[in-house]
Amino acid sequence: MSTLPPCPQCQSPYTYQDGALYLCPECGHEWAPGSDAPEAEAQRLVRDAYGNVLNDGDSITVIKDLKVKGSSLVVKVGTKVKGIRLVEGDHDIDCRIEGIGAMQLKSEFVKKA
């Protein structure tokens, strides 16, 4: 019976050791011994332009005029947005702006309201 730990991502019991790493043949995940904590638990903090931590559902205010790509519309300074949602990627805020619609914003151009 194997004494190796199961894969932290897919819980497969068929893990094997290759040098200093453990490998999972089912999902391809690699991890170092002793780092059995799932990577998903590490929360990424999203901060506004002034360093305040943003959370899902917060209200924000735009601090710079933002041109909407592919349109002649502009999101003006002081536009308030309610109920944001944080997402992964370069544009880390997903929201709906009245008069414009759904869009994604960079956190560096907003402040927490």
From TrEMBL:
Q: State the Pfam families in the record.
A: YjdM, Zn_Ribbon_YjdM
Q: Which GO terms describe its molecular function?
A: hydrolase activity
Q: Which residues form the signal peptide?
A: none
- Key words of the record: Hydrolase
Give the Protein YjdM N-terminal domain ranges: 3-32
**Where in the numbering of this chain does the Protein YjdM C-terminal domain appear?**
46-113
| Database matches in PANTHER family | PROTEIN YJDM, PROTEIN YJDM-RELATED
Q: Which family does it belong to?
A: Belongs to the YjdM family.
Annotated protein name in UniProt: Phosphonoacetate hydrolase
Native organism? Chitiniphilus shinanonensis
* Taxonomic path: Bacteria, Pseudomonadati, Pseudomonadota, Betaproteobacteria, Neisseriales
